[in-house]
Structures are given as C-alpha cells and as structure tokens.
Amino acid sequence: MTIDYRSQTVLLTGASAGIGAAFATALASRGANLVLVARRADQLTAIADELHRTHGVRVDTIPFDLADPAAGAALHRIVTERGIAITSVINNEAVGTFALFADADAGRLATEIAVDVAAPVQVTAAFLPDLLRAGNGFILNVAGASAYVPSPRMAVYSAAKAFVLSFTESLWAELRGSGLTVFAVSPGATRTEFTTGMGTGARVLISGKTRAADDVVATALAHLERRNPGPSVVDGRINRLTVMMSRFATRRQSAALMARVLDPARL
Ligand SMILES: NC(=O)c1ccc[n+]([C@@H]2O[C@H](COP(=O)([O-])OP(=O)(O)OC[C@H]3O[C@@H](n4cnc5c(N)ncnc54)[C@H](OP(=O)(O)O)[C@@H]3O)[C@@H](O)[C@H]2O)c1
User: 96, 194 in Cβ contact below 8 A?
Assistant: First the structure.
C-alpha cells in the first residue's frame, strides 16, 4: 500500500536504542510524528531533540517501564492527556535471557514475559480503537528468527517471540479490510545492545554474520510499503533461508541442532 508517513503519529516502544532508535530515525526522515517509549529518559530526549531539529516532526517521549502490567492503559492515558492521536504502533521492546532454564532467575524470566509478551498485547489492545478510527496506519510487532525454531538456552525468549509472531499473524487476518496494515518483522542476529546483560555465553548469538539495525528497519518499511503485505517478514537473506530450511526439519531435529548452535562451548 502507499503509506503517507506525514499523516502518521507512531507510538514506538523500545525507542532508546538499537532497532527502535533506527525505526525512529527512518520514520522521522519520512515525515512521521513519533511518541517514543522506553525507560531511559535522557536517551529518549536526546533522540527526540535530534529528530525534531533535523526533520521538523513532532517527537514526544514517555519514559516508562513496560514490565508494568497496566502498560497499555497507562500509556494510552498519558497520550490522551497530551492530546496526541496515535495512528500506528510499533511494539519493538524486548529483553532476553541466555542461560539454561534450570539456571535462570525466575524473577528475570517473569519480567521477560511481562515485557516481551504481555506489553505488546496490552499496548495493542489499548490503542487499537484509535488505530481503527484513523484507519490508515499500521501495527508492526518485532518478533525474531528464534520465533521459528526452539532455542535452547533462550527457552522463554524464543517462546515469547513465537507468541509475538503467532499473535501478529492472527491479527493480520482479523484486521484485513480495516485499513490497518499488520505484520511482524523477524530480525536474526543484529548488532545492538541486546546481548549486553543477557548472561554469560550470549556472545554465541553474535558470533556469526550479523545485520545492522538499519537493515532490519529497511526490510520492515519495504514490507509495509508493499501493495499487499503478508503477515510477517524475516530480515536478511541468510535468516530467511534458515527459517525456510527449518520447515523441512522435524521438531526433534530442530531442537537438537539449535542446542548445538547455541552452545557457547563451540566458540
Ligand atoms: N539484536 C538482535 O540480535 C535481535 C534479534 C532478533 C530480534 N530482536 C528484537 O528486536 C527488538 C529490538 O531489540 P534491539 O536489538 O534493538 O535491542 P536493544 O538495543 O537492547 O534495545 C531494546 C529496547 O527496548 C527497551 N526496553 C527494554 N526493556 C524495557 C522495559 N522494561 N520497558 C521499556 N522499554 C524497555 C530498551 O530501552 P530502555 O533500556 O531505555 O528501557 C531499548 O530501547 C526486540 O524485540 C528484540 O527481541 C533483536
């Protein structure tokens, strides 16, 4: 579809770094107004000031912890109080843990589910009536290549991404004909802050060929701009090939292979 970015006000979560910051830059350069959400206020303000100065768009910031179970309603209230009408949402934030499940901290895993699973659902639910009213925007959820295969040492994270992918693909079908474009983009290994703090051994995730945050954004926006976009897109030729090949393997083969691929001992 032809999207007029200048008519968009996009709520973008996880906007203070990495792929989210790259989305902010790409959308502002196309004329979209933005509402940036993440925990680090200073980072958000610096990005907002720069984008406003460079592109003349309105960029609001909401420093907010998306682990809050009432995230959707709270963000909607703040946006409404500021008189902003959101036309599109990008659910991009996530945290991950790299550890054997038996060794992982239960509290950290609970936060991971809150941020990676519950928040995208709650934020989408809270803003959907506004998006439907505007009827010319999009819902873009960031999943990941690990949504397509079981990922030992990232059991909760890859299950969370499988949830995001399935949730988004169902919404795509439910919202056809609504005027909204709904899809998930799945990055593979991408050079961002993501692996920092994931746990010992996470280096294995970026040991192979990695992509840049701008590549992921280019893939997502090219998909958005297609005439009849499908429910999901994988970033990068090698990632697409890997996802395609995984369809020919049994679940047993996939799980066993990924256990070897994600074993830090092989580095
Ligand atoms: N990088 C990769 O290799 C890769 C691969 C596949 C999928 N992905 C997906 O791509 C998306 C973006 O990741 P990235 O690589 O850009 O990671 P990143 O550089 O670590 O950025 C993550 C963003 O999420 C925000 N965030 C984290 N926890 C939050 C919380 N509790 N409340 C609010 N915001 C929170 C962070 O901001 P604050 O810290 O300021 O809150 C930051 O803006 C994620 O969905 C990730 O799963 C990444």
Answer: yes
Between 2-6, 13-17, 100-104, 231-235, the lowest mean confidence (pLDDT) is in: 2-6
Q: How confident is the model over 147-194, as pLDDT tens digits?
A: 999 999 999 999 999 999 999 999 999 999 999 999 999 999 999 999
Question: Is 148 tagged catalytic?
Answer: no
- 258 CA from centroid of ligand 1 (Å): 22
What is the CA(15)–ligand 1 centre distance, in A? 8
Q: Ligand 1: does its nearest atom lie under 6 Å from the Cβ of 94?
A: yes
Nearest of 204, 190, 199, 198 to residue 142 by alpha carbon: 190
- CA distances (Å), origin 8, targets 86, 89, 234: 8, 10, 24
Report the residue among 45, 190, 232 best suited for mutation to probe ligand 1: largest number of ligand atoms under 8 A from its CB. 190
DSSP lists the bridge partners of residue 12 as: 36, 90
Judge residue 13's burial from the number of C-beta atoms within 10 Å of its C-beta, 0-12 exposed, 13-18 middle, 19 or more buried: buried
Token pair of 238, please?
């090698």
Reference 262, options 116, 102, 141, 97; nearest CA is: 97
Look at the chain and report how many structural domains it folds into.
1
Domain of residue 179 covers 5-266
Structure tokens at 204: 């294995």
How far does residue 93's CA lie from ligand 1's centre (Å)?
A: 4
Please identify, by atom number, the ligand 1 atom nearest to the C-alpha of residue 66: 32
Q: What is the CATH number of the domain that holds 74?
A: 3.40.50.720
Pairing of strands 9-13, 33-38: parallel
pLDDT per residue over 141-160, tens digit each? Answer: 999 999 999 999 999 999 99
